[in-house]
């Protein structure tokens, strides 16, 4: 029976930790020029991009290639998924040619329909609801830097978007101390907040109080204030979010040697200052690199190659 990777909460605690262990092993093997490990030899990955992204395309395409496979890019002009052609037809056709589908879509319902119609594994490369591969890369990076992930205190600053929903999904599986610091009216999905809060082992907080939220944070995390598809709101959001910028003052107020994370691309001078991005506490580019290794671990498992 095929398994997809649509939400991190589709996997249990042991499987989440298993992804981390696998990703660390794969990272060593991929970076070893003498290791010719190619579990995806002769396999094909179809990559559907309704939303463009440099990191998602490069990390999946390069990662699949480094492990011996071939990745095929299908942009908005190649497949008008849900518009020019129905989602279920795309899923069934690509299943006849390929061994796996990765999709980066707008509507989450399209991801669910693709998962249902495809007879090969489907990996969620992002929807407007969640971004599970990013969160696995984030968790891997935190584990590398802090040597633990259980009860790590992560304070996310900004819009309660798909990144926040993914952290909340994760908090329903493993113990986390997670705070979303956002302006009023920009809270994450309420059902997903409830899912995480119902997990008795995680501490979840949604707050608008900038002064208190970041104290004791192991990690401060942010993202752009206006995501793709919201750029017409950018100017109005800039005023609303002006007090939620991650800057040196905020980083210094945590009372800890706090790490800074951003899923990129960053709009320097808006959600984060340049000096925070370039500080020794910034692990943004380790985080970006780990997209490939975390995703390789995910693909290895659901292709039954691990």
Notes on the protein architecture:
The chain has 306 residues and is α/β, with parallel strands linked by helices. The chain has two domains: 8-131 and 291-302, 3-Layer(aba) Sandwich (Rossmann fold), CATH 3.40.50.1370; 133-287, Rossmann fold (3-Layer(aba) Sandwich), CATH 3.40.50. It is built from twelve helices and nine strands. A five-stranded parallel beta sheet has the order 7-6-5-8-9, with helices on one face. A four-stranded parallel beta sheet has the order 2-1-3-4, with helices on both faces. Helix 7 links the parallel strand 6 (177-181) and strand 7 (203-207). The two termini are 16 Å apart.
Q: Total helix count?
A: 12
How many E-type strands? 9
* Largest sheet descriptor: 5 strands, parallel
Order of helices and strands: HEHEHEHEHEHEHEHEHHEHH
What percentage of the residues does DSSP assign to strands (E)?
Answer: 5-15%
Range of helix content: 40-55%
Short description:
By secondary structure, the protein is of the alpha/beta class.
């Amino acid at each position: 029976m095929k398994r997809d990777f649509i939400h991190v909460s589709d996997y249990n605690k042991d499987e989440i930790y298993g992804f981390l262990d696998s990703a660390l092993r794969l990272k060593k093997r991929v970076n070893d020029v003498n290791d010719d490990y190619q579990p995806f030899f002769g396999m094909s990955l179809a990559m559907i991009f309704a939303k463009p992204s440099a990191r998602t395309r490069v990390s999946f395409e390069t990662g699949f290639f480094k492990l011996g496979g071939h990745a095929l890019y299908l942009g908005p002009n190649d497949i008008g998924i849900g518009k020019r052609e129905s989602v279920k037809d795309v899923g069934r056709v690509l299943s006849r040619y390929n061994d796996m589908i990765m999709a980066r879509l707008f509507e989450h319902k399209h991801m669910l329909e693709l998962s249902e119609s495809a007879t090969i594994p489907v990996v969620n490369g992002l929807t407007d609801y969640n971004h599970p591969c990013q969160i696995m890369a984030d968790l891997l990076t935190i584990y590398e830097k802090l040597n633990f992930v259980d009860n790590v205190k992560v304070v996310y600053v900004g819009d309660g978007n798909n990144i926040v929903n993914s952290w909340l999904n994760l908090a329903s599986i493993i113990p986390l101390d997670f705070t979303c610091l956002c302006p009023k009216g920009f809270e994450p999905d309420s059902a997903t907040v409830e899912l995480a809060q119902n997990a008795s082992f995680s501490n979840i907080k949604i707050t608008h109080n900038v002064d208190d939220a970041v104290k004791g944070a192991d990690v401060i995390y942010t993202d752009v204030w206006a995501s793709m598809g919201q750029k017409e709101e950018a100017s109005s959001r800039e005023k609303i979010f002006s007090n939620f910028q991650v800057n040196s003052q905020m980083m210094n107020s945590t009372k800890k040697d706090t790490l800074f994370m951003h899923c990129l691309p960053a709009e320097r001078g808006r959600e984060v200052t340049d000096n925070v991005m370039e500080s020794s506490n910034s692990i943004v580019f380790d985080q970006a690199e780990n997209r490939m290794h975390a995703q390789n671990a995910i693909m290895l498992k659901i292709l039954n190659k691990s």
